[in-house]
Amino acid sequence: IGLVRKYIKRDGVENLLRWLDKTDFYVAPATAGYRLSVEGGLVQHSLNTFYRMVELANMYYGKEPADDNFYNGDTPDAESAFTMENIALVALFHAIYKADVYVKDYRNMKIDGKWEQVEYYRWDEAFVYGRGAKSVYILQQFMRLYTDEAQAIRFHTAGREDVNTGMFDTLFYRVYEESPIAVLLFLAEQMAYWLDSADV
After folding, report:
1. Which residues contact 103 (CB under 8 A, 6 or more apart)?
2. Whole-angstrom Cα distance, residue 169 to residue 108?
3. Would the pLDDT of 73 be above 80?
4. Contact, 175 vs 143, CB < 8 A?
5. Hey, which of 74-83, 104-113, 155-164, 179-188 has the most confident mean pLDDT?
6. Sign of torsion, CA 145 150 156 161?
7. Cα-Cα-Cα-Cα dihedral sign, residues 82, 143, 7, 92
8. How far is residue 88's CA from residue 140's CA, in Å, rounded to a whole number?
9. Neighbouring C-beta atoms of residue 162, cutoff 10 Å
């Protein structure tokens, strides 16, 4: 919440935060049985993604300290610049689609030769819309997204959800070629998942 209020000044952000308070976003796991499959895992993954994305943006694009702008190339212009607001928005909310989709359940598991009931998280999605697409849809109920932001969030899975649709080789490659923020979000999310996701 502190990072959102510090960096995201867009109309609608307070309504989004109020909506999040009505969901399980802050206590939900990041996954069902994989990394950060713990209470609070989703928000921890979102924070990890944000910090990795800032790290990558500083490393590859440099920062203009006066206004928190990052530039794609040597010459700053409106087409190539992205800001801390853009980074905060896509990194902190790329996985908002996971709010209110996990439920606690029990399954039988053999432990030390005995069957026991073990609690686990089960995916139970009421509104099915696709991962990145659903995050974009939810965010657009509260605020305007710029094209690069919407594309970055939509394709943060690098097309994994589109492998069987024929879209894999066309859309996500094109987005990544044209949008540095989409590439940074994908890389940051992967780093956060694989490198920063020890269960807490």
Report:
1. 121, 122, 124
2. 41
3. no
4. no
5. 179-188
6. positive
7. negative
8. 16
9. 20
- Three-class SS of the chain: CHHHHHHCCCCCHHHHHHHHHCCCCCCCCCCCCCCCCCCCHHHHHHHHHHHHHHHHHHHHHCEECCCCEEECCCCCCCCCEEEHHHHHHHHHHCCHHHCCCEEEEEEEEEECCEEEEEEEEEECCCCCCCHHHHHHHHHHCCCCCCHHHHHHHHCCCCCHHHCCCCCHHHHHHHHHHHCHHHHHHHHHHHHHHHHCCCCC
Q: Which residues lie below 8 Å from residue 174, measured CB to CB, with a gap of 6+?
A: none
CB-hemisphere CA count at 13 Å for 65?
0
Q: What pLDDT is recorded for position 75?
A: 46
Name residue 124's beta-bridge partners. Answer: none
Q: Is the pLDDT of residue 169 over 80?
A: no
Q: Look over the chain and give the mean of its residue pLDDT values, rounded to a whole number.
A: 86
pLDDT in tens, 186-198: 999 999 999 987 6
Q: Note the pLDDT tens digit of each residue in 117-132.
A: 988 888 888 888 888 9
